[in-house]
């Protein structure tokens, strides 16, 4: 099974439990159904399922209106940059309705365009930017465990939030990694505990962290591996404590942004931890950064491992 099929199954399970939900978005019940993400949802949805035109500003406003009136809704968005057209609603409308303690849920579920060679819209793959505009709650998922937890908890939780995954991962085989700890609000997940190095992944970068972890372990080291799935900043004392023990940290973020949660977490690390080694891995902003190009992080795992372990 690949990730998109797993997410589709989770969505069907949660939507089928609700008595009256409005699902809407472009081609969510036509053609490829967003490459299978929304396939079959109309068959189990007890409310309305609507294929809509590209009028994102109005559609975000409709979602807020439904929430205010006690109706759950999900706006499926085929690519994250479409949400730019709804920024006015995210800021002005949300700042009005957020204080009403709504009983219904409004969830925007965009697909982040990060699979490479996608044109200008691929320059925007960072939910942190949208969440920072008006202190919006946002979560992303990359594997079997975090998708199950986040969708079950947040898809229909009252209020507004953004949850997302990356296009690069959707067609890949489903990753089922051992989970040893999850923060109670699912802001971060821990996948291993070690003493040599702490790896913290952001956005959709967990697979890079897993590859680095494997390389370090082959060289005799042990790794604590974390993924921060929340896109609005918080201070993570639990992770800071682990970094203080290992004194070696690697932060990995595959988002293209000047406004990363990673940067705020890094500041906390520098202020709170005495480090022997710090490595930050993010996309390199080259001259062709905003043109169609390969969209994978290029990491020399052997060099990074040697730098960390002193081999």
Can you offer a commentary on this structure?
This protein has eleven helices and twelve strands. It has 311 residues and is α/β, with parallel strands linked by helices. It has two domains: 3-170, 3-Layer(aba) Sandwich (Rossmann fold); 181-309, 3-Layer(aba) Sandwich (Rossmann fold). It has a six-stranded parallel sheet with strand order 2-1-3-4-6-5, with helices on both faces. Strand 7 and strand 8 (188-192) form a beta hairpin. Helix 3 (56-68) packs parallel to helix 4 and helix 8 crosses helix 11 (301-309). The chain is globular.
State the helix count. Answer: 11
Largest sheet: 6 strands, parallel
In terms of DSSP E residues, the strand content is 15-25%
Strand order of the largest sheet: 2-1-3-4-6-5
Distance between the termini: 39 Å
What's the mean pLDDT score? 93
Total domain modules: 2
Low-confidence stretches: none
CATH class of the largest domain: Alpha Beta
* Percent of residues in helices: 25-40%
Question: Could you write a compact summary of the structure shown?
Answer:
By secondary structure, the chain is of the alpha/beta class. It has helices at residues 3-15, 41-44, 56-68, 87-97, 127-134, 144-154, 167-170, 206-218, 237-246, 261-272, 301-309; strands at 21-25, 48-51, 72-77, 105-112, 138-140, 159-166, 181-182, 188-192, 197-202, 223-228, 248-253, 277-281.
């Amino acid at each position: 099974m690949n990730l998109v099929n797993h997410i589709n199954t989770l969505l069907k399970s949660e939507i089928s439990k609700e008595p009256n939900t409005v699902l809407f978005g472009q081609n969510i019940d036509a053609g490829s159904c967003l490459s299978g993400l929304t396939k079959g949802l109309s068959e189990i949805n007890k409310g309305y399922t609507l294929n809509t035109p590209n009028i994102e500003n109005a559609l975000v406003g409709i979602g807020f209106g439904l929430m205010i009136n006690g109706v759950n809704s999900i706006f499926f968005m085929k690519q994250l940059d479409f949400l730019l057209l709804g920024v006015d609603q995210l800021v002005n409308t949300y700042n009005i309705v957020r204080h009403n303690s709504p009983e219904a849920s409004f969830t925007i579920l965009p697909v982040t365009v990060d699979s490479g060679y996608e044109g200008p819209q691929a320059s925007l793959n960072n939910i942190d930017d949208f969440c920072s505009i008006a202190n919006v709650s946002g979560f992303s998922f990359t594997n079997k465990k975090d998708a199950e937890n986040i969708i079950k908890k947040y898809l229909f939780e009252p209020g507004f939030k953004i949850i997302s995954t990356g296009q690069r991962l959707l067609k890949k085989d489903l990753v089922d990694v051992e989970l040893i700890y999850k923060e109670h609000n699912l802001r971060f997940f821990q996948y291993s505990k070690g003493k040599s190095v702490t790896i913290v992944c952001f956005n959709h970068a967990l697979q890079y962290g897993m590859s680095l972890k494997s390389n370090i372990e082959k060289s005799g080291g042990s790794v604590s591996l974390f993924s921060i799935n929340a896109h609005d900043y918080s201070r993570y004392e639990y992770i800071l404590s682990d970094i203080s023990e290992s004194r070696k940290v690697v932060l990995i973020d595959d988002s293209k942004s000047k406004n990363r949660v990673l940067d705020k977490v890094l500041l906390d690390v520098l202020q709170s931890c005495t480090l022997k080694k710090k490595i930050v891995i993010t996309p390199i902003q080259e001259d062709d950064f905003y043109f169609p190009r390969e969209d994978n992080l290029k990491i020399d795992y052997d060099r990074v491992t040697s730098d960390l372990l002193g081999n």
